[in-house]
Amino acid sequence: KNYIIFLDNTPFCKDLKLMFKSKINIVLGTKLNTIVKKFLNKNKKYSFDIGLGHFLNVPEEKIKGFGNGMRDWKSGFQRTIDYWDLRNKDPNFFSFKDIDVSYDYKCDFFNKLEIKKDEKIALIHIKNQKANACAKPTDPETYHSTIEFLLSNNYKIILNGREEMPDSFKNYPIFNYAECNEATWLNDVILCDRSDLNICFGSGIIGLSCVLNKPSLYIGFWHLFQPSPNKKGLFIPTLLKNKNTGKYLSFKEQIDYCLDSKKQVFNSEKFDAVNPSNQDILNGTKELIEIINGKLKISKDQINFNLKYGNIPLAKCQSHISENFLKKYNHLI
């Protein structure tokens, strides 16, 4: 069948059309897209929902007030499980690996970022404010040891995403792509495809390394039931601590709390968010590099962790929790 995707006329959507122009029929037009959506919401037999991103973050009993076509928490959650099941059936399919961008365009872009041909590239990403998976903004100092380790191992470090570069990062030779004029969705994809290592903090941008099959360390996310599905990935979650008792929630309690509360954005008067420490991030980075180089294998404890908590996305996940982090918080299992 021939499908047509209707999208708004935005820079992001223009990049998508350029990237997949030989594979998908994409029509741009904000007003047209609105009209088409209204028609398809009432005539669903003519459409196929391919969305997987944010679902409606309101109580299910209020969902009807937002009209047809909105996905509630339950359906959005199930779609994630279905998608990860599909990825596991075809684990070597990477949809963004073969995009319609010329070699000359890529070379020009790499020259602007001062990337040399055989240079090892590490992309680092931070969050300066709370949002969705990020329950607490990044403390830049927790990256310092990792930055120094990567520099000592001859990585060129590039600040990825769109966050403002912290002042302390300016003491290191880090290229500030996040705030440069070249930062576009298309270039995000090209840059990630060129990378050798990604460190991402509680953000959907982690999905790029998944669809490009690039090694990633996903940190600082409180949605423990749903880490990155990247088969070349490790993850270190944000933990929750009771403000009154000072005790951490167990991994199961944190998963249950997130699922029961049906919250996408963290907001609690009872719990504090505890992000990965300086040593946690450094250990996770070293682990990942050893795995990439074939010097370390995923342990049985790491594998069992994914399978321990029932039929949630974590059980379908191809990435694993950092072994050092798991040992440190073994009492939370």
| Rg estimate, integer Å | 20 Å
The number of helical elements comes to: 12
Uncertain stretches of 5 or more adjacent residues? none
Biggest beta sheet attributes? 7 strands, parallel
Strand order of the largest sheet: 5-4-3-6-7-8-11
CA(first)-CA(last) distance: 47 Å
Folded structure, characterized:
- The chain has 333 residues and is of the alpha/beta class.
- 36% of the residues lie in helices and 13% in strands.
- It has 12 helices and 11 strands.
- The chain has helices spanning 11-19, 30-42, 73-89, 103-112, 144-152, 185-194, 206-212, 251-261, 278-292, 300-307, 313-316, 323-328, and strands spanning 4-7, 25-28, 120-124, 155-159, 174-175, 197-201, 216-219, 233-236, 239-242, 271-274, 320-321.
- A 7-stranded parallel sheet has the order 5-4-3-6-7-8-11, with helices on both faces. Strands 1-2 form a two-stranded parallel sheet. Strands 9-10 form a two-stranded antiparallel ribbon.
- Helix 5 (144-152) links the parallel strand 3 and strand 4.
- Helix 5 packs parallel to helix 9.
- The longest helix has 17 residues, at 73-89.
- The protein is globular.
- The protein starts with a strand and ends in a 5-residue tail after the last helix.
